[in-house]
Amino acid sequence: MKTTPPVLERSVSVWAQGVELPGDLSIPDGARGLVLFAHGSGSSRRSPRNRFVAQTLQRAGLATLLFDLLTPAEEAIDAGTAELRFDIDLLAERLVGATDWVGEQPDTAKLSMGYFGSSTGAAAALVAAAERAHAVHAVVSRGGRPDLAASVLDKVRAPTLLIVGEYDDPVIDWNREALARLRGEKRLEVVREATHLFEEPGALEEVARLAGGWFARHLGGAGKAPAFRSELS
Questions:
Q1: What is the pTM for the complete model shown?
Q2: Residue 167: helix, strand or coil by DSSP?
Q3: Which CATH number does 7-218 carry?
Q4: Which end of the chain is less congested by CB atoms within 10 angstroms, N or C?
């Protein structure tokens, strides 16, 4: 019977581009990979969907970092204007800063890194992956907006998995268009009978399974990757 590795969990302050961002770092015993989460529009590190995926990855032996992309003051502004959640350059800069930060920490410096991005956070993840191509070894997008990173898609070298819901129009079309522009290893997975937030029974579990398999293949931290149900490329 497979046992779940013990997980070291701690709150951290991530220094990125001159600002301090609160985060939650979880490192399973023996982890070889680390996944940084970039949350989507109007969300935070407390997103229950991202936390569910993170816990699934931790059970598979991958470390995770969930952190806020905006400071508390910026979140207050964004709550009223919704402008910063679509500032992809700003969000990507914060993710690049977090990437550099974990690369300097003793307990994460040697871990192979990947990104898990949701909604606008997925666009930030793709921009950051293009900028830190030497450090980022896999990207997974959940219901993402890769169209907002269109100018850099051909520069992304990290293997990229795009996950969308079958009924998530027009996001599914934007992801199909992005898939055609990506130049590295890529895959589009459509979760059947799922909408944008994957709230349907079993939908988020499928997202976690697909993400875990992708990171297992490319970060080496979760053993053998499960088989995928479908492929569009």
A1: 0.90
A2: coil
A3: 3.40.50.1820
A4: N
